[in-house]
């Protein structure tokens, strides 16, 4: 579904989402975020392990596919010669082919929860999970969202407006109903939901997340305090050496040269 056109933009939903995500990552530069990158369809795919390097992470996000689906999907024009279905417009080189292209969020959340438990840094108190999806999911994620709340992981859901014509052609009206359930569950367990109707609302959502997830200022203050203290020590040491040198010369030669 991320390969269908998004709101008459001439771009796929996946491409619009990726472009705004890259802008968000540039906003986050220098904040020492420890982040990983996941994609999901029927199965979760770990794209980048936890990392603090902004450049490497952005490169992985740039190279990530716009969508994942199976090669014989009827949304490809050559598989739909009578033009019954909404066309997938995502470029072929930005599509990752998998065995199944359904939107199974629950297995992805299970994988992320396990990953946080295994590789997460327990010293980091400010943790968040950002989910950007059209949310045409197939199951109720109540158990997973409850677990994330217990782990003190804030969930941000960016619900990108789905292509309703495409979803209805494939009989996925239940998935559209489940999107409303997903949003309600995220709010129920302390998360925040953004309804994405166009590129501007997606940009506004990322701006808000960037504002809410600022790095603690105490880290910067501590660093500056240490550097200033060290500089004072260096000045004091230099003055002490100068005083000892002058005192020694006075002792040896008196007040006159």
Largest sheet at a glance?
3 strands, parallel
Principal-axes shape call: globular
The arrangement of helices and strands along the chain is HEEHEEHEHEHHEHH
- What fraction, in percent, of the residue positions are helical? 40-55%
What's the average pLDDT? 81
Q: Specify the number of helices.
A: 8
* CA(first)-CA(last) distance: 90 Å
Strand content: 15-25%
Alpha-beta classification: alpha/beta
Radius of gyration: 27 Å
Show unreliable segments: 217-239, 241-246
Spatial order of strands in the largest sheet: 5-6-7
Number of strands: 7
Describe the protein.
The chain is an alpha/beta fold and about 260 residues long. It contains eight helices and seven strands, in the order αββαββαβαβααβαα. It has helices at about 15-25, 55-65, 105-120, 140-150, 165-170, 175-190, 200-210, 215-255; strands at about 35-40, 45-50, 65-70, 95, 125-135, 155-160, 190-195. The strands form three sheets. The chain has a three-stranded parallel β-sheet with strand order 5-6-7, sandwiched between helices. Strands 1-2 form a two-stranded antiparallel ribbon. Strands 3-4 form a two-stranded parallel sheet. Strand 5 (about 125-135), helix 4 and strand 6 form a beta-alpha-beta unit. Helix 1 (about 15-25) packs antiparallel against helix 2 and helix 1 packs parallel to helix 7. It is globular and about 55 Å long. About 25% of the residues are buried. The model is unreliable at about 215-240 and about 240-245 (pLDDT under 50).
């Amino acid at each position: 579904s991320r390969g269908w056109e998004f709101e008459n933009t001439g771009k796929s939903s996946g491409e619009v989402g990726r472009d705004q995500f890259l802008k968000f990552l540039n906003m986050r530069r220098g904040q020492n975020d420890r982040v990983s990158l996941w994609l999901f369809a029927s199965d979760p795919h770990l794209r980048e392990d936890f990392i603090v390097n902004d450049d490497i992470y952005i490169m992985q996000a740039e190279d990530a596919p716009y969508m994942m689906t199976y090669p014989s999907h009827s949304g490809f024009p050559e598989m739909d010669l009578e033009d019954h279905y909404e066309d997938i417009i995502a470029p072929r080189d930005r599509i990752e082919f998998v065995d199944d292209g359904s939107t199974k969020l629950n297995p992805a959340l299970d994988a992320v929860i396990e990953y946080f438990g295994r590789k997460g840094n327990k010293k980091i108190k400010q943790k968040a999970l950002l989910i950007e999806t059209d949310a045409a999911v197939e199951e109720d994620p109540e158990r997973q969202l409850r677990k994330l709340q217990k782990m003190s992981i804030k969930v941000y859901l960016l619900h990108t407006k789905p292509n309703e014509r495409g979803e209805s052609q494939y009989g996925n009206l239940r998935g559209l109903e489940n999107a409303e359930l997903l949003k309600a569950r995220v709010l129920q367990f302390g998360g925040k939901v953004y309804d994405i109707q166009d590129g501007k609302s997606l940009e506004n959502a990322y701006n808000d997340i960037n504002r809410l997830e600022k790095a603690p200022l105490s880290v910067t203050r501590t660093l500056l305090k240490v550097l200033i203290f060290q500089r004072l020590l260096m000045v004091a040491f230099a003055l002490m050496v100068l005083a000892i040198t002058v005192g020694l010369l006075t002792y040896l030669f008196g007040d006159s040269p």
